[in-house]
Each structure stands twice: as structure tokens, then as C-alpha cells.
Design goal:
4 helices, alpha/beta, 5-stranded mixed beta sheet, 211 residues, two-stranded antiparallel sheet, single chain
Length: 211
């Protein structure tokens, strides 16, 4: 026996209509429950990027980055410039003014050529002292006097006063021109300063002038 048995036809139609409405309402209610919260405010998940908030005029304003976030860029600090060292570079071998490895320290003879040289002729060869003085000067020696010397000496010698600059100069001059160097003897001890070269016939003028 059905729910609507015993009712008149109009009543049955009204009852069916009410049942249909109830079914539709139930379906709509179920859909609403399953999709509930759709109109609620969207919450920002922890650690997520904050969303843009609408402004009063409807335009979307970008939200400020959180402090310490990677998007907040800090201007890089200017590189510190180290002060230039004022110390001069160390001398390297081979530079100007610096003798390189294996090179001589300089002309030892040139360091003594400022000492004056007196040239005396003790031979019978005319002009021998003048020629020797020319040879010495051509080599850079400082000849201050040219004259003859009396007596008879066995060989050409450069004489010096021991313990003075004359000693090194006389030895350098004698080595350069091929004769000996000795301390001054008694007869010439009181002559003025300088190396005294007393020439004899053994002095070879062609050793230096190329003749």
C-alpha cells in the first residue's frame, strides 16, 4: 500500500510536488556542504609568500617583502682599496746601476785616476816624457807635470807615498802600462803630492799609441 493511498487525486499531485522540492533542496544542501568555505578569506600558509592586498580603489598593491627575505636586496659595500706600498721595489740583477751575476763591479783603475801624475824623463830620448804624458792622458789619467830628471835609474818605475791614495793609483798605472810601482826613495820624498813616474829607455811608447 503506497504513501498516497486513500488520498484524492489533487492531494496526490500536491504530495508529489512537495517530495520533489525536498529532494532538490537536499541535493543543493549536499553540494553546499562539500564546497563550504569557498567564500571565506584566504589565509596565508606559514612561510608562504604574502598575497597582494587590494587597495581602497580596487587596484592591487604589491606587498612589502618580509625583513630578511631574499627579495630584500642590500646594496653591496664598496670594495676596500688597500694602500699602495711605498717601499721601492727590490733591485733586480741586470738593472741599470746594479752589476748582474758574474759581471765585474766596475773599472778599478778609473777609481784612482783622479790622483795627479808627474812624469819625469830619465833617458836620453828627446820628448819621451811628453809622449808618455800623452799616453797617460789618453787613458784618463790626470797628468799635472812633465819634465826631466837627472841621474841614472835602471828602469821605468811609478813611485808613491805608502799609506796614501798614491799607492793604489801607482800600482794601477804601472799594471796598465807595463812597469813596476815602488815607494818613493829619499831623493824624491819631499816632492809635491801625486804619483811620480820616472821614465827610462825601456818605456815603450808604441804600447798605447798604436804606432
Amino acid at each position: 500500500m503506497s504513501l498516497f493511498s486513500g488520498l484524492s487525486r489533487p492531494m496526490k499531485a500536491a504530495g508529489l510536488a512537495l517530495v520533489g522540492v525536498a529532494v532538490i533542496a537536499a541535493v543543493i544542501g549536499g553540494i553546499t556542504l562539500t564546497s563550504g568555505g569557498g567564500d571565506s578569506d584566504t589565509a596565508t600558509p606559514p612561510g608562504g609568500t604574502p598575497t597582494s592586498a587590494p587597495s581602497s580603489d580596487g587596484a592591487t598593491q604589491p606587498s612589502s617583502p618580509a625583513p630578511g627575505s631574499p627579495s630584500a636586496s642590500t646594496p653591496p659595500a664598496p670594495p676596500s682599496s688597500a694602500p699602495a706600498s711605498s717601499a721601492p721595489p727590490a733591485s733586480q740583477p741586470g738593472q741599470p746601476g746594479q752589476p748582474g751575476p758574474g759581471q765585474p763591479g766596475g773599472d778599478q783603475q778609473a777609481s784612482h785616476k783622479w790622483v795627479t801624475v808627474r812624469v819625469y824623463n830619465n833617458s836620453t830620448i828627446q820628448g819621451l816624457a811628453e809622449q808618455a804624458a800623452k799616453d797617460f792622458r789618453a787613458s784618463g789619467w790626470n797628468v799635472s807635470e812633465v819634465k826631466g830628471y837627472p841621474g841614472r835609474l835602471p828602469e821605468t818605475v811609478a813611485y808613491y807615498r805608502p799609506g796614501t791614495d798614491e799607492e793604489a793609483a801607482a800600482k794601477a798605472l804601472a799594471l796598465e802600462f807595463g812597469f813596476r810601482a815602488e815607494p818613493r826613495f829619499k831623493e824624491i820624498e819631499n816632492i809635491g803630492p801625486g804619483v811620480i813616474v820616472i821614465l827610462t829607455k825601456d818605456y815603450k811608447t808604441n804600447d798605447k799609441d798604436g804606432s
